Amino acid sequence: VAIAYEPGQDHGTEPRAARWEPRGWREQLQRIREMRRSRDAPVDEMGVQKCYDSSAPPQVMRYQVLLALMLSSQTKDQVTSAAMQRLRRRGLSVDSVLQMDDDTLGQIIYPVGFWRSKVKYIKQTTAILKQKYGGDIPSTVEELVQLPGVGPKMAHLAMHIAWDSVAGIAVDTHVHRISNRLQWVKKETKNPEQTRVALEEWLPRELWKEINWLLVGFGQQTCLPVNPRCSQCLNQDICPAAKRP
Q: Which of 143, 165, 187 is the last residue of a domain?
């Protein structure tokens, strides 16, 4: 899938009113905020933003953020968090990972999804960070997605969390699914990267950072992949996909 890095900007003098936007999206968003007010979903308590050592030097903290993101792919937050805790107990840094053999790293991160592949990607990426970036992580989406095992969602979240920079919307399977259910995309999208591009075309930029954690937690608790809890959802009366009684 082709990756566009900086969409969502105003082009020329096109008036804002001429742009497509989903019907009733502001009300839907406000109701999701209300449902997420307690911030007690797995992503809130064990997501990547909770996995790194906030007291570590900035360069080490950023590396830990990237590593947590790499581990989190197709893995529950609880499993990622536990793996990060085990790594941090060994003093998680670029140098400590480079000094670790593959078997040891695999034993520590197991049972994250696709752990064998992630051992390889982590070692390759960490070596690149040491050689090319002085042990830090890149500060652009373009460079981040060139690293082995780092996709667009991870890159945008790394920009948000590690660099406090909003380069785009981080879209995972939850954001992708819910955006299609709410019809926040002009036409159905087939994958998260298509959804990201579609959302960035209309969603105000000041909401880009918020939308990921809002929808991920909403997807974990209410708008489930299978058997969504529509009866508990405040958007039941205005959601195109709602299963109404």
A: 165
The mean per-residue pLDDT over the stretch 169-180 comes to: 97
Cα separation of 196 and 67, whole Å? 22
Of how many residues is the chain composed?
245
With the CA atoms of 225, 230, 233 and 236 taken in that order, what torsion angle do they form, in degrees rounded to the nearest 10? 120
pLDDT in tens, 228-241: 999 999 999 999 99
153 among known catalytic residues = yes
Domain range for residue 173? 23-39+168-239
* Domain end point (choices 133, 165, 197): 165
Shared-domain flag, residues 34 and 132:
no
CB burial of 226-240 (b: ≥16 within 10 Å; e: otherwise) equals eebebeebbbeeebe
CATH number reported for the structural domain that contains residue 219 in this entry? 1.10.1670.10
Average pLDDT of the chain to the nearest whole number: 93
* C-alpha–C-alpha distance, residues 222 and 199, integer Å: 21
Q: CA dist 244 to 15, 204, 233, 237, Å?
A: 37, 30, 11, 8
Say yes or no to pLDDT of 13 above 90.
no
Q: 207-219, pLDDT tens digit by residue?
A: 999 999 999 999 9
Give the separation between CA 41 and CA 47, rounded to whole angstroms: 9
- pTM given for the model: 0.89
For residues 158 and 176, state if they share a domain: no
| CA-to-CA dists, residue 111 to 26, 52, 66, 84, 148, angstroms | 39, 19, 18, 12, 20
Catalytic, out of 76, 118, 123, 153: 153
